[in-house]
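protien #1 (seq + structre)
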Amino acid sequence: MPGVQLPETIIATDKLGHFAIYGIFNWLVIKGLASSDNLTSKSVLIATLVVTIYGVLMEIVQWSFFPNRFFEVWDIVANFIGAVLVYFIFNFHFTKK
């Protein structure tokens, strides 16, 4: 279904949603790795790449299979930034110990 038209601001509200959701998604994936004792710098990087690729694939699926939905590069950018921010937070925390 088409989304609700939101007023335009400096940063679109839906992009903040993408940023937050993919940041939380990456956080949960990395926390899962930590709870299974598989947390390394490499595993955190791979988790971030997987979450980012998932975001790209969801944009493609949305565009391909749902009428009135569109592929938006800026959604992918917001997904990527959210996931990468969490990567840096975890990487900083992980290397400090």
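ok now protien #2
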Amino acid sequence: MNHNILNNSRAFTMIVEQDPESGWYVGEVVELPGCFTQAPDLSSLEKNIEEAISLYLDVADPDEERPIFIGAWRVTAPA
């Protein structure tokens, strides 16, 4: 079964961080635990995460419950 994200209407949430040492971008899909990738630029990261999602869905249990993304916010705490 091929889940090409470009032909599928399902949307996913990707959290993006930048590695301070390498400068590379790291993306993780919130709804698919363990689905992540990296790339030197955001355009490549988008392509890589589409491939990672497709590969993840090819082997995932369709009945497995997955997290639901609610939101993100910045919290201030004493350092």
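Residues 1-79 form a domain with the Double Stranded RNA Binding Domain fold (CATH 3.30.160).
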